[in-house]
Amino acid sequence: MDEILEQALLYDFYGELLNDHQKEVYEQFILEDLSLSEIAEAQGISRQGVHDLVKRCQKALEGYESRLHLVGRFL
Predict the structure, then answer these.
(1) 25 CB-contact burial (10 Å; exposed 0-12 / middle 13-18 / buried 19+)
(2) What are the 10-residue block averages of pLDDT along the chain, 75 residues in total?
């Protein structure tokens, strides 16, 4: 499955389990397709901070899926 589609599905199913800041940044990166630099400028944080946050969100969402398998059942 396409990685962007997979991440969007994971966000659709488990996104509400992220905090507001995580949701905002992750939406901008995955759904709005903004660059790390664009997000960093808008959020007032470093590009590396955005990268780390996106990676943590991806890991958390994948962890939820590994335990709950909701996306797998949906597909």
Answers:
(1) buried
(2) 86 96 95 94 95 97 96 91
DSSP at 75 = -
Identify whether the C-beta of residue 26 lies closer than 8 Å to the C-beta of residue 35: no
**What is the Cα 7 distance to its own chain's centre?**
7
Quote the pTM value: 0.88
Query: 36-71 burial, b for 16+ CB within 10 Å, e for fewer?
Result: beebbeeeeeeeeebeebbeebbebbeebbeeeeeb
Helix (H, G, I), strand (E, B) or coil at 46: coil
